[in-house]
Write a structure and sequence with these properties.
Layout lengths: L5 H7 L10 H18 L2 E2 L2 E2 L5 E7 L1 E2 L5 E4 L4 E9 L10 E2 L5 E2 L2 E2 L1 E2 L5 E3 L2 E2 L3 E4 L16 E7 L8 E5 L9 E2 L6 E2 L1 E4 L5 E3 L10 E3 L7 E7 L5 E7 L10 E5 L13 E8 L16 H15 L3 H23 L14 H4 L3
Parallel strand pairs: 7-13
Antiparallel strand pairs: 1-2, 3-24, 4-5, 5-23, 6-24, 8-9, 10-11, 11-12, 13-23, 14-19, 14-21, 15-18, 15-20, 16-17, 21-22
Helix pairs in contact: 2-3, 3-4
Length: 351
């Protein structure tokens, strides 16, 4: 199925469903409708009302200076639903744990100082810990080497196009730049001046905060090792992402040492999508069903008029259409019936 882009949606949607006014207003309505679809698509137990909010993807597994394995989710992914390490362990998805509330059948799990997890002295063999969001890069500096930050762009940007990086230096001191009244916390780079821009300050670890304007194209962030000169891609920032902050999961059972081989480099997962507002006319619209969006636009119009009855009718039709569409691709559920041996069938039948 072809992707639906914002520009195509604006030209294809029935004019009477869009609000009169500027294109900016029309885009805001489309984003509001698609955002509502994502809210209604949240899982209840294991069932999605709108199942189009899931997708199957693969992530690169990285290892930090303590040899702790982790994956970082891109901006358009909210959370992991199920996964398996590499191709050699099919059908063995790791269990999931939520940060600050990690209870398993054998008791609470504890994060060790060396990056591992376990109960008592027993190392946790498998499992994942949600490390929260707010991570500005998808991997740390290789070998924890202090590095310069380098921004590379492929599109022309309007001047000024200032990107702010905050963080600490190799001595763990907060980085400041400028002088006198112009002193700021962090480093500001105007990436419109050249296709490649680099800090003169050295960062001891990945930046703690990144702020950027809406750009015409993605910005690639690299670390440049101070001693080795190694250049490593550590983040890609979408044009519409003004304050990048990604979610990260620590992976149990994959700890390695200096002389141990890396056990896995890929995590295959089913994920929950995150709603990302469309900004550019070339941005993808999800879901890409024009009829559902038109129904949602009508529902939004009645919502704003205070007519909840008609609004709920249109929203219901839109969600029903989306669910039916996904069901056609996934096929019907197959019931499974089990009976407990030697007991009353009527009282012990399970479906």
């Amino acid at each position: 199925m072809a992707k639906l882009l914002l520009g195509d949606a604006l030209s294809s949607l029935a004019p009477e469903t869009l609000p009169a006014g500027s294109q900016t207003l029309q885009i805001s309505w489309i984003n509001a409708v698609c955002s509502e679809f994502f809210v209604e698509g949240k899982p209840k137990d294991t069932t999605f009302r709108w199942k189009g909010t899931t997708a199957g993807v693969s992530f690169a597994i990285y290892y930090d200076e303590n040899f702790q394995a982790y994956v970082t989710l891109p901006r358009n992914v909210l959370s992991l639903l199920a996964s398996a390490y590499g191709a050699s362990t099919p059908g063995q998805p790791p269990s999931y744990n939520v940060r600050f509330s990690n209870m398993q059948i054998n008791g609470p799990w504890h994060e060790f100082a060396n990056g591992g997890y376990g109960v008592g002295d027993q190392v946790w063999g498998r499992g994942m810990l949600d490390a929260g969001d707010g991570w500005t890069t998808f991997q740390e500096f290789p070998n924890a080497e202090p590095s310069y930050l380098r921004v590379v762009r492929a599109t022309t940007e309007t001047s000024p196009c200032n990107v702010l990086f905050r963080g600490t230096d190799q001595n763990d001191n907060e980085i400041y730049s400028g002088s006198g009244p112009s002193t700021i916390q962090g480093v500001m780079l105007d990436v419109s001046a050249a296709s490649t821009t680099q800090t003169t300050q050295v960062f001891g670890r990945a930046p703690s905060l990144v702020q950027k304007p809406v750009t015409n194209g993605p910005l690639n962030l690299y670390s440049v090792g101070v001693n080795s000169g190694t250049v490593t891609l550590i983040a890609i920032y979408d044009p519409g992402d003004k304050s990048p902050g990604f979610r990260r999961y620590k992976l149990g059972g994959l700890n390695i040492g200096p002389n141990q081989p890396v056990p896995f480099t890929t995590l295959h997962a089913m994920v929950k999508r995150r709603f990302v507002p469309a900004v550019s006319l070339s941005d993808e619209i999800i879901p890409g069903n024009l009829t559902a969006i038109e129904l949602g636009l009508q529902g939004r119009r009645y919502d704003l008029q205070g007519d909840r009855k008609n609004a709920m009718s249109y929203w219901g039709d839109a969600l029903s259409l989306l669910n039916s569409e996904v069901s056609e691709f996934r096929g019907a559920a197959v019931p499974r019936i089990m009976f407990q041996r030697g007991s009353n069938l009527a009282g012990n039948a399970r479906i």
